[in-house]
């Protein structure tokens, strides 16, 4: 499991914000400050798949790379429901994420979950994955339990139902220490700490679906800011990288030593009311960052305007839901606000991707030696853009 790159960030208590990741030295634009492997990854597809998905798998159920029509597919010999891109992925999964215990549990769950909504099916898969790491990797299970998330952060009804379901298909003798309180605590950890591994961007409509959810212990300490100074990249379909589910965090711009490193928990171009609503409902807090302090004084009429937009990538420390188009912040200036009323306009001009239906954030490529790269990469569509500011 990778951690902070050469100790350039560390976990500190920040007043009013809890545990946070702070720069231990001056950081440069494009610098990689974290590359981390997940301790847990599970599918975002429901166990009872839609009819059109019954006879196909779009990705490997271990490394989550896309399976093309020309791919050689290796199916689990026991359940035949999970598919893998190679014999290696199948073999590794059988000793870790798809152990015989998991295989048996998922087979039993399919019958029990046939009438349940997809969200509950995915939550059930998370609980199976979480209890599995308690069996195959107790150290990772303790890390999971140490992450933010308390019992009352999850829905009590869901926790009760899912816990009873898990116990019905997995005898308690197979899960020492299992309890309703532990199941509820695990669901809370998932809600506040799971990141989405996304399907590629469909340019024609901007929609992206979630391929899988993953929990990264160090990355879970990144706090939110509506104008972040770092952003996340992943290269899940990379054929050359054995650790293709790693998360990579790169700096958007320079920051001094001691500055907190923040990500945005959702696309930066969401408007004020949408951001506040999402943060309160999903994470239990309201944001008072510099940007929000400015935008809080703007007209409430921004909530009434509908904008054609697109679903965007969500950083998730929670379960991803496709966002409606009106959440994009073409509304930022719809109230007649000028650039002088919006002091952060420079961020949008320089660091927002201008590709149609994208809405991603740009960060420079990693610096080479002492030189900062003048090429910016979008963390959603992957397009590269020359940074004219550096060349001036």
UniProtKB/TrEMBL annotation:
**Known SUPFAM superfamilies for this protein?**
SET domain
Q: Which InterPro entries does the record cross-reference, listed alphabetically?
A: ASHR2-like (IPR044238), SET_dom (IPR001214), SET_dom_sf (IPR046341)
Compositionally biased, Acidic residues: which spans? Answer: 300-329
Q: Which Pfam families does the record associate with it?
A: SET (PF00856)
- Residue stretches making up the SET domain: 6-266
- Quick one: where's region Disordered? 300-339
Specify the protein name.
ASH1-related protein 2 putative isoform 1
Q: Which source organism?
A: Tripterygium wilfordii (Thunder God vine)
Identify the taxonomic lineage of the organism of origin: Eukaryota, Viridiplantae, Streptophyta, Embryophyta, Tracheophyta
């Amino acid at each position: 499991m990778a951690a902070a790159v050469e100790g350039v960030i560390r976990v500190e208590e920040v007043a009013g914000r809890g545990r946070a990741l702070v720069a231990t030295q001056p950081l440069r634009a494009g610098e990689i400050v974290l590359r981390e492997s997940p301790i847990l990854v599970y599918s975002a597809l429901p166990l009872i798949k839609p009819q059109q998905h019954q006879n196909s798998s779009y990705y490997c159920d271990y490394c989550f790379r896309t399976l093309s029509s020309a791919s050689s597919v290796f199916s689990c010999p026991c359940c035949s429901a999970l598919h893998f891109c190679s014999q290696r992925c199948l073999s590794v999964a059988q000793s870790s994420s798809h152990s015989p215990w998991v295989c048996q549990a998922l087979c039993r769950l399919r019958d029990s979950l046939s009438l349940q909504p997809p969200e509950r099916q995915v939550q059930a898969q998370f609980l199976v994955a979480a209890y599995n790491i308690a069996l195959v990797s107790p150290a990772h299970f303790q890390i999971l339990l140490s992450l933010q998330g308390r019992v009352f952060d999850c829905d009590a009804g869901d926790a009760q139902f899912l816990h009873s379901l898990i116990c019905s298909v997995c005898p308690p003798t197979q899960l020492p220490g299992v309890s309703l309180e532990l199941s509820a605590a695990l669901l809370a950890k998932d809600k506040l700490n799971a990141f989405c591994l996304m399907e590629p961007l469909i340019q024609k409509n901007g929609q992206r679906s979630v391929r899988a959810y993953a929990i990264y212990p160090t990355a879970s300490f990144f706090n939110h800011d509506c104008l972040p100074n770092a952003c996340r990249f992943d290269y899940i379909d990379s054929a050359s990288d054995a650790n293709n589910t790693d998360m990579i965090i790169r700096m958007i711009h320079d920051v001094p030593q001691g500055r907190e490193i923040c990500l945005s928990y959702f696309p930066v171009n969401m408007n004020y009311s949408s951001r506040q609503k999402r943060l309160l409902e999903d994470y239990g807090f309201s944001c008072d960052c510099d940007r929000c302090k400015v935008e809080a004084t703007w007209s409430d009429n921004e909530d009434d305007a509908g904008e054609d937009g697109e679903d965007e990538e969500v950083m998730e420390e929670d379960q991803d839901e496709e966002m409606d188009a009106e959440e994009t912040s073409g509304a930022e200036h719809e109230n007649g606000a000028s650039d002088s009323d919006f002091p952060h306009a420079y961020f949008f001009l320089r660091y927002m991707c201008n590709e149609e239906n994208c809405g991603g954030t740009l960060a420079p490529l990693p610096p080479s030696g002492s030189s900062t790269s003048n090429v910016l990469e979008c963390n959603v569509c992957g397009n590269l853009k020359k940074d004219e500011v550096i060349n001036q």
